[in-house]
Structure formats: C-alpha cells, structure tokens
Amino acid sequence: MYGKKRIYIGMLTALAAVVMAIYLMLMYIIASHRINLYYYMLIGIFLVLTIFIAVLMMGTLALVLSLMEKRPIRALSGFMFFALNTIYPEILFFGGLLGIDKDKIMRSYAEINDNLVASRNIRVLPSDILILLPHCLQRSSCTQRITTDINNCKRCGKCDICALIGIADRYGVNITVATGGTLARKAVKTYKPKAIVAVACERDLTSGIQDVNSIPVLGIVNMRPEGPCFNTRVDVNLVENAVKNFIDGGESK
Ligand code: SF4
C-alpha cells in the first residue's frame, strides 16, 4: 500500500529525542544543584518526563516490532495504542513545527493502522462488513441521490461508485455513502459492522479510524485528480482486497 510507515515512526522517534534532550538538560540542572528554589518542581517534571519517555519508547518499539513481525504484540498493545492514537495530535503538531506535510503524516498513520489491522487476521461474515464511501466519489454531474440510497446509482460507469457497488454485490457486504463525519458515524450505528472498509481523504480517514476505535478499519486514501472533494477516484482493487482480507481472515495475502 502507498504512503510511508516510516514517517510516523520517524516522528515518534524524533519526539522522543526532543523530550530526551529536555530530560537530560533537567537532569544536569538537578545534578548540579544550580537552582534550589524550583528544585522539587524540577524533580516532579523530571519524573513525569521519565514516565513519558519510557511509554513513548515502548510504544514506538511495539509498533516497529508488530509491523516487522506482521502480528500485533498483544502484551504491549497499551503502549502501541499510546504511540498510535493518544499521542497522534502531538505528532501532527510536532510534524507541523518541522515543516512536514500533514497529509503525509496522516497517510503514514493510516498505512500503519492498515498493516496492524491486516496483521490481526480478523475474519468476519460478509454481512458484518461495511464499505463506507465519501460523497465526492460521485461524478459531480450525476443527479442520482446515492446518499439516500446507493442503489439509486444507474451504474453508468462514469465514476467508481459503479465498480464499488459491484464489489459489494459480489461479496455480499454492506455499502453506503456518507457526506461527512456525522453521517458516517450514523451509518456505523445503523449497520453495526464488525469491520469497516473506508475510503476517504487522509484527514477524514484518520479521524474516522480514531472515532470507531473498537471496530477494525482498513482505510484507503482516495485520489484527487481534480482537486479535493471533487470527482475523486479510488483504486477499486484496494477496496476489493480489503473486503477479501476481512472475509478470509487475511489468508488471501
Ligand atoms: S456510476 Fe453513474 S449513475 Fe452511478 S453515481 Fe456514478 S455517475 Fe452517477
């Protein structure tokens, strides 16, 4: 899959390095007893940083090991959750300070998530899978009301909705179009899926993955040949592979 897992891992490592530098500086000040007035406060900060660095490094290590081994390290899942989800806003902010494109970090996050979800070999019934699509995949000139019911699509083939309905029909999975985060959440409540294949831009995909944290999501970033939110496209083969992954528990890989 596209994207660079190493961007997110690199950001985690860089953040750990920065915090470690502050930590060492504090350690030096405390050791040299140069400041007596704030001495105990510094020790408090020192202890918090110690815990933070330890958890961050364990989380990063757990992510790297899980990706390398192609299986989640269950004993370290709490640390992994911290590195991937809890600290995600800080990683985005930190990446912004370093001038790294947010979309690249989000894409990296989505790719790591996909690898971890795929490595869990989750197997669910087709009827428990939901393909969740953004409205911008529909051809802008099309007047069919596919957000009300995707089966209103006339299957003219002018956009990828046609092929995606074909995938849903072929495998017997649910499919719907949502015009935003609120309607996407509503669709999840309605269908109650045990696994989701989501197509969206980097921003919607990462926030969606975090929104439905208890449900495994395989996310596919859409393509925007005409700019954002307009006549977008998706690699339908990636969508089909994601559906197959959930149906056969990853045996088709
Ligand atoms: S395939 Fe044709 S009818 Fe269906 S949503 Fe796209 S443009 Fe509209």
Q: How would you describe the overall organization of this protein?
A:
With about 250 residues, the protein is an alpha/beta fold. The chain folds into two domains: about 5-100, no CATH class; about 125-245, 3-Layer(aba) Sandwich (Rossmann fold). Helix content is about 55%, strand content about 10%. The protein has nine helices and four strands. The chain has a four-stranded parallel beta sheet, sandwiched between helices. Strand 1, helix 6 (about 160-170) and strand 2 (about 175-180) form a beta-alpha-beta unit. Helix 1 runs antiparallel to helix 2 and helix 5 (about 100-120) packs across helix 8 (about 200-210). The longest helix is centred in the N-terminal third of the chain and has 31 residues, at about 40-70. The mean pLDDT is about 90. The site of iron/sulfur cluster has 14 residues, from helix 6.
Strand content: 5-15%
Small molecules in complex: iron/sulfur cluster
Q: Total number of β-strand segments?
A: 4
Low-pLDDT residue spans = none
Domain count: 2
| Number of helices, counting only DSSP H or I runs of 4 residues or more | 9
Strand neighbour order, sheet with most strands: 2-1-3-4
Average pLDDT confidence is 89
Give me the secondary-structure category: alpha/beta
Q: Biggest sheet, open or closed, and with what strands and sense?
A: 4 strands, parallel
Shape: elongated
Oligomer: single chain
The CATH topology of the largest domain corresponds to Rossmann fold
Query: What Rg, in angstroms, do the CA atoms define?
Result: 22 Å
Reading off the top of the CATH hierarchy, the class of the largest domain is best stated as Alpha Beta
Distance between the termini: 12 Å
SSE order, as H and E? Answer: HHHHHEHEHEHEH
Using the 3D structure, state the CATH architecture of the largest domain.
Answer: 3-Layer(aba) Sandwich
In helices, the fraction of residues equals 55-70%
